[in-house]
Amino acid sequence: MNERPDAHLAALLKALDLLLEQARVYERVLPANNYPARAAVAALSRLAEQARQEARRLAPAAPGGQDSPPPAEAAPFSPREQQVLELAATGLTNKEIAFRLGISDRTVQFHINSIFNKTATNSRTEAVAVALQRGWIPPARG
After folding, report:
1. For the segment 12-48, what is each residue's pLDDT rounded down to a tens digit?
2. Which of the listed CATH numbers 1.10.10.10, 2.60.260.20, 2.40.10.270, 3.30.930.10 matches domain 79-133?
3. d(CA 31, CA 37)
4. DSSP 3-state helix, strand, coil percentages of the chain (rounded to 5)?
5. Hey, CA dihedral for 76, 56, 16, 94, is it positive or negative?
């Protein structure tokens, strides 16, 4: 095997960053009274953050090391897809997004499907996490 150990650590850091972004999305969209799910997501977030910190100590020069944010890539989305994705990241349903943007539910679903294709994902949560990780959408304000 010719791969360097720091390449494996960089891949691990990227995976942990994605996991943490997904956990943040779940935290935003879970109902406030779903205590078991919220506790599970919080525990997963703590463990992933501990693993990320340890990996950063082992590979300070790896991408994402020393608390540097990943460089933003050009977003592959149309302006409308960008709007839909940013609203989905806040936890809005398709109906709520349609209402906010003044478009049909069917049009929102069309854009969501296009976002899935462009992010190679199968769920809104995954698509939002990928977009956050790559800097395509800003983090939601708490």
Report:
1. 888 888 888 888 888 778 887 888 888 888 888 888 8
2. 1.10.10.10
3. 9
4. 70, 0, 30
5. negative
